[in-house]
Protein 1
Amino acid sequence: MNLSQLDYQLFQAINHFADRFPALNPLMAFCAVNLDYLFYLGVVVYWFARTPENRRMVVNTLLSAAAALETNSIIGAIYHRDRPFVAHHVIQLVKHEASASFPSNHAAAAFAVAASIWLWRRKDGWVWFLLAAIIGFSRIWSGIHYPTDIVGGAILGVLIAVVIGKLMRWQGLKWLSEFLIRIYESIEHKVWKA
């Protein structure tokens, strides 16, 4: 059995949970489409906690997520893999365009954010990793990604977050990050003062 067959069999096993546990389908559909908004909210909360460490972490997080999504779009343009609902009969809980399936944008961005937070705050990071895994699992359950799409996106997101994290400690990028934060904070101070 090759990787493609194993991937499809695992996809079928997870996707068929929709038949076996239909009461969970609304929750899985919600997680597949909307749980990533919790990541946006989390980043905003960390930013407005206004500690220098949080602000540096958020800059690192946003750069990592942006780089992961851009890398995904390049991979998707070079290698187009049809989504499961295009290639097979699936239980599809969520409507989705027939765009490239590999690697998963949701997984790449969620795991990039989780890894970035984990690099700064270990305990918080584990919670974000769990939420990222729920997003990935729910997108398989909902019929819009294969398991390897999620695993590929997760690996890509984590690797990019680690690389960006290391680069942000390099003096040139650290200085740029601090400079951008100071500009924002001076504007923020003027707005709150007004």
Protein 2
Amino acid sequence: MIDKLDLKYMKLALNEAKKGYLLDEVPIGCVIVSSGVVIRAHNTKEKTKDATCHAEINAIKKACKKLDAKVLPNATIYVTVEPCLMCLGAILQARITRLVYGAKEEKFGATSVLDNYQSNHTLLVSGGVLENEAKELMQEFFKAKRLK
């Protein structure tokens, strides 16, 4: 059973992904919720010409600035697609408590790394929330790219 709040925030993340799509960015959206504050972001790699500007990194930076904190221990991060290794590392470094993602990422998804990760920080992970919607958006984006 999927939690109503998880659905609510994943829908916001999907809206962020759609914003990115319209800007010709890979349509991945992210929402961080911490202490009642909601932070939204999408990929900006194309706009910034910066390989590190993934939705998760952008959201973590915005959240830290908004909350005036270097770590986000009471936060949940919602991402439309399973995070890559770089983003998973940033999520762990930010001490985020919970990760919720939509679609599994076969090539770059890195949550399986957590099976062997040893730390005093535990990240709770839930996948598959609005998975079909996230997957369809990605497929539509790359199909359109191939047709160009």
Protein 3
Amino acid sequence: MTYGYIRVSTDHQTTENQRIEIERFCKINNMHIDCWIDEKISGTKKPQNRKLGKILMKESKPGDLIICTEISRLGRSLIMVMNILQFFLDKGIKVWTIKDGYRLGDDIQSKVLAFAFGLSAEIERKLISERTKLGLQRAKLNGRHLGRMKGQKPVNYKLSQYDEYIRFQLLFGRSKLSLARELGVTWVTLNRHLSRILFKS
């Protein structure tokens, strides 16, 4: 099955231009869109809160093809886009973008790109962690109190910065053991953190 995925950020924007562009592409390449998925929602929203996650990521099957005008339609952050693409590639679903010219599928080039996506996401997570550490160091030099006061329960934990990433990975079938290894913690630590997340939710 071939899906056409369209997204705009607000109700003031129209999806028509993207639809026309995809239809033109399909006509030139003698293709047909079997199912359209269009939504008006910010790309900063988590995939599971959008049609992208609720419909496309759940219903698409190995061998299916997703066509969108550009890769930024999938999300607004590097980590989010990389995780979404990694999900589709792992599931055997092809993703084509018209403006960017990406043709991601079951071939060696796509596998190399999938590795690059995963690496990019890991680099981005490390950069976020590094920025956090530098911010704490500056705060300490400026005389600000770091850490919680005596008797105060912690608000943020070691894995708190990865909450969105953890939810996303588990929602789409990632094993806790595999995820714990990637994050550099034990399965027990990850499971304990998940209990905190669920309790907080």
